[in-house]
Specification:
CATH superfamily: Aldolase class I
Number of helices: 12
Shape: globular
Bound molecules: phosphoenolpyruvate
Structural class: alpha/beta
Order of helices and strands: EHEHEHEHHEHHHEHHEHEH
Strand content: 5-15%
Length: about 250
């Protein structure tokens, strides 16, 4: 069986100025060990704070992610940021297809696929988000919606490329609402996602993919979620904005 290094990632969304970023990261660094070998920790501040974050994280095991990227490397795309730019400020990861971008910015599965390819071109590891709305879950369409998002978002990917990326299952009804999927509900979907990945990339590549859960992960529910066999980490929104709560999540048991 593949061993997957658990990944805890904090998505800060539109929070924290550069000064607040420096403050939060210095508090976080003091709460985590100087080296981490059994788990990986990533933070995703807003674009304008990435450089400050890279400086604050120098010498620490915490890695840097962006929250989005543009598929082109450069050009007349006002307000956009490209993969090479993210790489230049020290990012190793990039979140792609977050439900807030799909919902508020009209991001489509096809755009997600282009961004995933761009991230790989630019040597950034994509954290590709998928998840159903409450209405889709109640209609019984949950697994077909997620399968569609994965098949479209990973279209044209080789098995090797799929093995190297991270998928985040984020049920939209659980994001920022305080309603978490139960460990069993999340495991059911993670197992289904892995099954879809087997169809796309084969058994051994699918077994290597880290599938993290996101949706109101907190210090008091992280242990149960991460005890599930197909839950390989967490994408954390609100609880990543305070050093104490994020550090406790990183120290899941
Ligand atoms: C997220 O934004 O990816 C998220 C999971 O947010 P929260 O933890 O606040 O639900």
């Amino acid at each position: 069986m593949a061993t997957r290094l658990p990944l805890i990632a904090g998505n800060w969304k539109m929070h924290k100025t550069p000064a607040e970023t420096a403050e939060l990261l210095s508090a976080l660094v003091t709460r985590l060990p100087a080296a981490l070998s059994d788990r990986e920790v990533v933070v995703a501040p807003p674009f304008i704070a990435l450089e400050t974050a890279a400086r604050a994280l120098r010498g620490s095991p915490i890695r840097l992610s962006a929250q989005n990227l543009h598929a082109e490397t450069h050009g007349a795309f006002t307000g956009e940021v490209s993969g090479p730019m993210l790489k230049a400020v020290g990012c190793q990861y990039v979140i792609i297809g977050h439900s807030e971008r799909r919902q508020y910015c009209g991001e489509t599965d096809e755009q997600v696929a282009q961004k995933v390819k761009a991230a790989q071109r630019d040597s950034l590891t994509p954290i590709v988000c998928v998840g159903e709305t409450l209405a889709e879950r109640e209609r019984g369409d949950m697994l077909s919606v997620i399968s569609r998002q994965i098949r479209a978002g990973l279209a044209g990917q080789t098995a090797q490329a799929i093995a190297a990326l991270v998928l985040a299952y984020e049920p939209i009804w659980a994001i920022g609402t305080g309603k978490t999927a139960s460990p069993e509900q999340a495991q059911e979907v993670h197992a289904a996602i892995r099954h879809t990945l087997v169809e796309l990339a084969g058994q051994s590549s699918a077994a290597a993919v880290r599938i993290v859960y996101g949706g109101s992960v907190k210090p008091d529910n992280v242990d149960g979620l991460l005890a599930q066999p197909d839950i390989d980490g967490a994408l954390v929104g609100g609880a990543s904005l305070q050093a104490d709560s994020f550090a406790r999540i990183v120290h899941f048991e």
